[in-house]
Specification:
Elements: H1 3-14, H2 29-41, E1 46-51, H3 65-68, E2 80-85, E3 91-97, E4 108-109, E5 113-115, H4 123-139, E6 148-154, H5 167-172, E7 179-182, E8 196-205, E9 209-210, H6 220-234, E10 242-247, E11 254-255, E12 258-267, H7 270-295, H8 302-311, E13 312-318, H9 330-333, E14 360-363, E15 380-382, H10 383-403
Parallel strand pairs: 3-6, 3-7, 7-14
Antiparallel strand pairs: 1-2, 2-6, 4-5, 5-15, 8-12, 8-13, 9-11, 10-12
Helix pairs in contact: 1-4, 4-10, 6-7, 7-8
Length: 406
Amino acid sequence: MRPGDQSLLMKLLDLPTAGPLETTGEVRLWDAMRAYADAAADIGFDVLRFAAPDPSVLDRPGVPLLLRDTGPGFLTCQPSLVLRIGPAAPAVMFNVHLDTVAPFEPAGFDGTRFVGRGAIDAKGPAVALLAGVRAAVTTEPSVGRDIGVLVQAVSGEEGGAMGTFGTRPLVEAGFHGELNIFCEPTGLRYLPRCSASMTACVRVDGEDAIDDEPHRGHNATVLLGFLAQHLADDLPKHGQVCVAGLHTGRMHNRVYGRGELLLNIPYDSGEAAAKMTSALEDGLRSGIAAFEDRFRRSPAFARTATDAAAITGLRWLKRDLPALPAQDIPLLDAFVPRWPDDEPAFTCDALWLADVPGTKTAVLGPGSLGANNAHSRGEYADVEELDRFGDLVREIVVRFARDGGA
């Protein structure tokens, strides 16, 4: 990694780029993308698009409910950037997100390791990507002349936005290649598939009560706690599930009659999504029946048990997203280790290439979400792993050029 690359990465790490879904603090994605575009211009990239998304992107099928409740200024601080060197086709496209999770962490570099929010997810890979393309342009004269390289630098990947206002509209506008690489930590193995996820909210809408007469109210805490355990035992028989947050209230001197239980369910196909939807609906009914049977004779919880079915409902905060099916990519098979078929995939913006004909799509990047502390304290990326990713990018682009496409 050249000194200029190191300086660029430190500049990006110093900028707070968590979006409004993650933080109420300063969001400097415009500045981060300007710095990235300036660095790309030195390689020969042109800016094809640099703008905030149109508000209409939020009024689409598959957009999570949390995005539909945002204010008019929500999108203005979350632009996306499209860069290209060379012709529009044939082209290889790289997608990388410059938004991060919160909280912001100070950046640092000791000569071998970068630390800071986004170091591995995904500002570090974004800089390594440019280094790899620069090396490819130097190595193979047809890069930028006979074949194009497209870069999507997006926002809206984190915070549960699922790429609905970042990557999705760019792909729909035709900003993709015959080969598409999404830069996410995979341990430098290429992942030729991508799961999606749906988020369910089990909600109890009952009546509160004072702590002196708890039997007069509906105890959403006990009901939702029971359902959380029931579903945690039942749903894994049908597929993967994350039993996530449960909230009723924070005070000790009342019974809360209202509350929510969140469940996040990944899936790798429409059939799997339908199967888990049915399993959740069945599990919720059986859980309510079990709760009624257990607590209907309890003085404190008899009212909750009697009314459990009437006050408990299910709504979907996120669903109907596509999943990227597994595919063979001979160009990558020749020199990049493949993610094992029996190892679960994960969700990222690559899902938006699922229905695009004539394309091959993979997820590939340095490091590991877990091992490199992505989304947690002490996120880091080593120069060595970023350089190895840059080398892979160079090889992908060069081989794509010499093969005349994917």
